[in-house]
Write a structure and sequence with these properties.
Length: about 120
């Protein structure tokens, strides 16, 4: 049994991938359906090609994303969620939805906090 609270647990590595700055947004974007690299990059404002590539490689290795290469010139590469990735994306979608729904309350709390200082 894995325990993500243990420093050397493999689950900690996956948790770091998923909860990274870009991880949630990549997985949530692919929950909308398969995407080519540049479509995914444009969907996630502010992500560099290097960071997108690194994250995609990690997720492919983790078994959360599938990488399909069509033998065309140039090769056409499409990324999609695996069944495991889709299961995770449902949970992450709830997180993104909650943050989007409650951002007004969060911004107001920040302003109240900053005004007290």
């Amino acid at each position: 049994m894995s325990d993500a609270f243990t420093a050397d647990c493999p689950a900690r590595t996956v948790l770091n991938h998923v909860s990274s700055r870009w991880g949630v947004l990549i997985l949530a974007s692919l929950h909308e359906g398969p995407m080519r690299f540049y479509v995914l990059r444009d969907r996630i404002g502010g992500i560099s090609e290097k960071m997108l590539s690194q994250n995609l490689r990690e997720f492919v290795r983790d078994g959360l994303i599938a990488r399909e290469v069509e033998a065309t010139v140039p090769p056409r590469v499409t990324y999609s969620l695996t069944p495991l990735g889709r299961e995770l994306a449902v949970t992450l979608g709830g997180l993104v939805e909650w943050i989007t729904h409650r951002i007004g309350d969060i911004v107001a709390a920040r302003e109240r906090h900053d005004d007290v200082r």
